[in-house]
Amino acid sequence: MSIKVYLVDDHRLFLSGVKAELDSDFRIVGAAYDVDTAIEEIRGLRPDVVLVDVHMPDGGGIAVVEGVTETNPDVKFLALSVSDQAEDVIAMIRAGARGYVTKTIEPADLAGAIQRIHAGDAVFSPRLAGFVLDAFAGAIPSDDDPELDQLTSREKDVLRLIARGFAYKQVARKLNISIKTVETHVSSVLRKLQLSNRHELARWASKRRIV
Amino acid sequence: MEPSATAWSFDAHRRRSDRVVAGVAGGIADSLGVRDGYVRAAFVTLLTIWGLGGLLYLLFWLATYEKVEDRRIEPVENVRAIGLGIAFTGLLFLLGAVGLWPSSVVVLTAAALAFGTAALTDPSSPGPFAALMDPEVQKVGKARLVLGIVLLAGGIIMFSTAVGRVFELSVVFLAVFLTGLGVFVAFGPWVRRLLGDLSAERGERIRQEERAEVAAHLHDSVLQTLALIQRSDDPQRMAMLARHQESELRDWLYGIAPLDGVDLVSTALKQAAARVESDFQIPIDVVTVGDAAVDDRTRALVLAASEAMVNAAKHAGVDRISLYMEVQGEDVQVYVTDQGKGFDLGGVPSDRKGISESIRTRMERVGGEVAIDSVAGEGTEVMLKLAP
């Protein structure tokens, strides 16, 4: 049974392109060009994975993620964007998206990312890895949960290699660990990114106008 | 802190041409934007106050460098000159107040004569001495010798007079100083020439470094463009490349550094990546963590990274390149990564200057490190690092 995928993007041309690329590997259950239609349809169709554009009118991808997660927390989101704005991307992740890739991604890599998201792992593009390293830079642990507020040195190693453009498989080989371990590290970083109330992260975020 | 064109920017230098003694006064005049004659007059006046002028002249001489190119600054005069004049008068009063005042007659006479001469010889107000000061008529060498001998004789006479009387310490000092000054004025140029030979070797080394810099730049820009033009069979694209190169070369030759106006390394790297992207039509993923200011060292880093990207675009046979920069404290690291052909590092011919000259030499000149990791069939990664 193939993975049910739903697409949300206000650029119709891009949407039809992605649809064509993914059609053979996935079941595309629907697509929307605006936020309200997307939330309504996703609630009804219950896809496995939603590809959602970060920048859209009426609240953007973050509104879709928040609106759906309220009622259907099991739907998984992969953020997709041409934009490089750190604040938007981090906000999407903090709202619940499990990964972020840029629209320049190769079709095969996009397919791999969808499968990975469906399997419950996180998908970090080089850019997202860079954003996260930036957000967690510095060493001021907060008092309530220090474990959540800092990246381990291994996690940083993994993120740096991803930022340098290496795929998970190559990261695993370079660090002499298994792909599964790389995935575990990345998921752990995702959890920290979503749950940390890290002082620095909050300041970094507000500096870039995220709440 | 923003320096503007009209702001004071004191460039501590000595003039190489159009100088009387060693170009110190001329250099100060150029830096302050006033006529050199008045600065010389100020030195002469201070000279009468226990030789203070000579001491200051020596100190300035030691603290300045000789400026080779003669980009004379046109005097600004008027308001600034008046201001400096008031400040100088204040200095004289101050010296008087702290008891450094030999004789009002001597100081004031010297000041009157010196500034009077300066005013008369001011090229902006033609007077009887203006013709004498014309560079074509000037015989600085002879004048210097005559002045030196006069001062030497005066010093010796004063010294012997002082010895004949009671040892008036101050007169002795003045006499010794005048003697020394005479020797300095008469033989100064000869001594300086000897010292000049010693620094000639250093100068040669600096010239060689500059030559390497020029070669590296030409390699990065002009040679790359020529190579691209040779490969291209689209006349429109050739013309575009040539135009682009022409304007860039002009900017470089006439003093506008390619990174001017960019103050962050991340921005400079993004610009460099954008340029490689458009020249080679290969997307470059730029990821930056932290940031640093553009200075001479990071500028070299950006140019080296740019060269690494060009190499990857040309030789790796890939459709995407990754550029990663991370700043941690004072350390700046840049990785240029491709998943392309890779190569055998030992197999690069030495006349292919790309890696050896542009990247390695550039980085080593600013005390940075380069590590190139390449596996045939898997890709290449160039690591550039600057540590304090």
Describe this structure in a few short sentences.
Chain A has 211 residues and is of the alpha/beta class. Chain A has helices spanning 12-22, 35-45, 60-71, 86-95, 107-118, 126-135, 146-149, 153-163, 168-175, 179-195, 199-207; strands at 4-8, 27-32, 49-53, 76-81, 99-102, 123-124.
Instruction: Sketch the major β-sheet of chain B.
Output: 5 strands, mixed
CATH superfamily of the largest domain in chain A: Response regulator
Which geometry of chain B do the CA atoms define?
Answer: elongated
The ordered H/E elements of chain B are EHHHEHHHHHHEHEEHEE
In total, how many domains does the architecture of chain B comprise?
2
Low-confidence stretches of chain A: none
Strand elements of chain A, count: 6
Looking across the biggest beta sheet of chain A, what order are the strands in?
A: 2-1-3-4-5-6
User: In angstroms, what separates the terminal alpha carbons of chain A?
Assistant: 39 Å
Task: Tell me the layout of helices and strands.
The complex is a heterodimer of chains A (211) and B (388).
Chain A: E1 4-8, H1 12-22, E2 27-32, H2 35-45, E3 49-53, H3 60-71, E4 76-81, H4 86-95, E5 99-102, H5 107-118, E6 123-124, H6 126-135, H7 146-149, H8 153-163, H9 168-175, H10 179-195, H11 199-207
Chain B: E1 13-14, H1 24-32, H2 36-47, H3 52-63, E2 65-66, H4 79-97, H5 104-121, H6 140-164, H7 169-231, H8 235-253, H9 265-280, E3 284-289, H10 296-315, E4 321-328, E5 331-338, H11 353-365, E6 369-375, E7 379-386
Helix pairs in contact in B: 1-2, 2-3, 2-5, 6-7, 7-8, 7-11, 9-10, 10-11
